[in-house]
User: Fold these one by one.
Assistant:
Number 1:
Amino acid sequence: MATRPLDTLADFPAIPAGWAYLDTAATAQKPQVVVDAIARAYGETYATVHRGVYQRSADMTLAYEAARARVARFIGAGSPDEIVFVRGATEGINLVAQCWAGTVLKPGDRIMLSLLEHHSNIVPWQMVAERTGAAIDVAPLTADGRIDLDAMAAMLTERHKLVALAHVSNVLGSILDVPAAAALAHRVGAKLLVDGCQAVPRLPVDVAAMGADFYVFSGHKLYGPTGIGVLWGRPELLDAMPPWQGGGAMIDRVTFEKTTYAPPPGRFEAGTPHIVGALGLHAAIDYVDAIGLPTIHAHESALVAQAREGLGAINSVRLFGPDDSAGIVSFAIEGVHPHDIGTILDESRVAIRAGHHCAQPLMDALGLPATARASFGVYNGPEDVAALVKGVERVTRIFG
Ligand code: PMP
């Protein structure tokens, strides 16, 4: 067996010895540096941001805004002002759906999605389409589970105002060629929103260079806290968008006659923000960057290759997605419900996800109610994959 290429397991206090945590696509475990940053923020340096005149609050404001600047640098944004803190990818997509699409779309306009999208990159568009009279089109997949950009190119028209696609599929792990998708969208005058939830923990991301117009991700899949996420938008798009929620901190001046709004990103951050979440995210980004995303991608690709080879050698196992998927392997066993696979693997201390993965249209296309999914993180090693393969062999023996 190859030696562990990344020696990070000791950084993760919630992963006990011998437990193969293979559900990072759902949420990543937290390194001690993130736990410490959160404990320090609540236990030593805590105060509100933006409003206090006292030193502690001024310091916390600096720390909160430093987190924004760190995110900007991490994803290649032109300025921290392009970074809106949200609760997660779901809220980021809903914000764009309501504040951008909701004000731009007209009856007869169209939105292009793909068959592999997560429900959070489907339902917000259905809601805004219903409200505006726009319609939704769905780009198909190639045989190996990538978004079929040739097919999408043939479907795109000047009625399409938005293309919204996952950078990495949470079920298949397939990686989108974002610059190619952006070129197709822009050729017909549409904007491109990229759901980067599964990409940001696995691949280097440079939003502006890739040609995206909006990019969203969740902190908790990037080894950071829950309840904090990021919406990046091109400044001219954010500038033109009306506010999302009303309240404190998003205003310029309030009177009962008329209220004017703060410029982005404050305009979209009504109320006291998730201050400590932002600080935790900052620590998580520092942690990931210190390892390096090219290193993380290579590490996870080796685990994917090992898993696909080991599982693929078991007769009744059907593998989904391409060989070069990013950190995620979905599979099914003929005649065995994925929930049974998950339960039996749990007895061997292997934690995987079994279900529809919030991608029911993709499950329908695969002709399955659910799949089993193993997904990797920096803390996994070849022994975790070996435990997975051994556990799946046991499942096939139990079910004869
Ligand atoms: N998009 C993708 C591709 C995801 O994997 C997820 C989380 N499973 C989401 C969106 C939604 O993220 P959250 O629940 O953190 O808002």
Number 2:
Amino acid sequence: MAASHRLTVTDIQRMRDEGEHITMLTAYDYSTARLADEAEIPILLVGDSLGMVVLGYDSTLPVTVDDMIRHGAAVVRGTKRAHVVVDMPFGSYQAGWQEAMHNAVRIMQETGAGSVKLEGGRRSADIVRRLVTAGIPVMGHVGLTPQSVNALGGWRMQGKTPRDSVHVMHDARALEEAGAYAVVLETVPAALGSKITRQLRVPTIGIGAGPYTSGQVQVVNDMLGLFQDFKPKHARRFLDGATLIRDAFVAYRKAVESGSFPAAAESHLLDERVQRYIERMEYSREINPDHEGIDFEDAMEDIELEGRPAT
Ligand code: KIV
């Protein structure tokens, strides 16, 4: 979708209504966000997955509101066109709607993002309704919700049995009814992803939810092949980033060790006379910040004379 303005939730709904497949990608920093924006990725999610792929925690639970704000603001600064969604981290909305409102307002004000995302279906519906009523667009997230990994008993596919699939369906519908502008479906059977997408009027964004959702989201470190700890089944590596980057690091180390880096073009060179002056400089232990007793003009003239061929 060509757009001259920053995309809004209305644009995202229009994309879904016009049958356009919606691409969403996570981003956590300025440089990556800038590249993704140049690649015309319409939605950038500052996911709390940053806890695992950037900060090295073994789950998303330790991520704080301040973490999300720091990274969210960097992603907004790196983009002109993308709609930026910032995850509300674990503990920032579970204690009640007042705290959720306080944290969502902070995230919106301090990052400049276009919306927030939070996890949970029916259990989060009241909070979603209140945030939306206050003018904060909310993306929902059901199925495998990583902030509940301890309650779910691990990173397991959700909605596998008829009973569980009905639960996931009700969760997604509750979010739509509460006013969520889109719903992430994570790690559910493709048939369920398809069914929920046909049932909802708002876009569904799948990750491990099959090909029939309105859009797809990938964790940027997975799709660039940077995250080495494990490869989720739903991730596709569009680049072997780890090999490319490791090879570049080795080449850099070898260039330093061999003395071939930095070359003249990578060094700051001075006028030849000033260079000669620096070479002749004698280190004085006296602190002489005002250069007392040093006549630079004279010194430079001496150097110039020295450099002249004898007549
Ligand atoms: O935090 C995240 O990256 C997410 C996506 C996996 C949807 O929530």
